[in-house]
Design a protein that fits this description.
Length: about 280
């Protein structure tokens, strides 16, 4: 499994650096399983940003839907991530339903329509991120309602934080993930946003979404006493999300400020400290 896992580790390190660093705090076997799950997540997450037509995206997602039959049967297609994922599914008895939820979540975003309101945004964030966290818990051998609920909260917070930080990236690709109701209330000029400008009212919408993410981080941390320590590699993205939210606050919630998107150089130190203290 080493060569295949090395491919997954390389992909995750390149494209999902936050989760990559968090996975380093897992044991060697579990770490490789996490890399396989995260590499699969990257494969389907990038589809919406690499196709011009929803149909093309649906075709690529359908390829992965079909591939899952082979992945779970131990006869995956010849894709390096699918091969590593099949071994991971066998070794850790991963639930197929989580993969199906992820594929459904990514399929929903192909329309390009923004979420109607914050409730819709939360459902979207949960669909594209919480199943990743739940699969991570299965790799780590962690169950229980408290751990699963904490992972759900962290997944939502991580996804919302990522969406806010990626506003300039998505705007350059004519995509908007901001709740339509919030944009209307703030009289946000979407056309100006898509032209990559500082837009009046954007900071208010971003502030609302940062508060939403912070609320889910708080929800996850209220469960900390009930969550096994071995779940930390999956929950440590909460530490990174809090750091990014702090940078957004310091920038007055202007996501086009370049330093908002940069990773804090101390993040490995923050992760190591929280892992040592058993917190996230």
């Amino acid at each position: 499994m080493a060569a295949k896992s090395s491919h997954c580790a390389s992909e995750v390190k390149r494209h999902d650096r936050g989760r990559f660093h968090c996975a380093l705090f897992a044991g060697p076997d579990a770490r490789e399983g996490l890399f396989a799950v995260y590499a699969f997540n990257h494969e389907i997450a990038r589809i919406a940003d690499t196709v011009r037509e929803p149909l093309a995206g649906e075709i690529r997602l359908q390829w992965w839907r079909d591939a899952m039959a082979g992945v779970f049967a131990g006869d995956p297609p010849g894709h390096p991530v699918a091969i590593a994922l099949s071994e991971t599914v066998r070794r850790f008895a991963l639930s197929r339903s989580h993969f199906e939820r992820l594929l459904d979540g990514r399929g929903a975003e192909l329309s390009g329509d923004p979420p109607a309101d914050t409730d819709a945004l939360i459902r979207y964030a949960e669909g594209i991120s919480a199943p990743v966290s739940c699969l991570g818990l299965e790799v780590l051998g962690v169950g229980g309602d408290a751990a699963i609920e904490a992972a759900r909260h962290v997944g939502i917070a991580w996804a919302i934080t990522g969406l806010v930080r990626a506003i300039p990236f998505h705007a350059a690709r004519a995509r908007v993930y901001l709740p339509a109701v919030s944009c209307r209330h703030g009289a946000l000029d979407i056309d100006a946003l898509l032209r990559g400008r500082f837009v009046p009212g954007l900071a208010d919408v971003v502030s609302e979404l940062c508060d939403l993410a912070a609320g889910h981080l708080a929800g996850a941390r209220r469960l900390r006493a009930q969550v096994p320590r071995r779940a930390l590699p999956v929950l440590l993205p909460a530490t990174l999300a809090e750091g990014y939210l702090g940078k957004l606050r310091a920038a007055h919630h202007e996501p086009f400020e370049a330093h908002v998107r940069a990773s804090p150089p101390s993040r490995l130190l923050m992760l190591a400290l929280n892992a040592f203290l058993g917190r996230y």
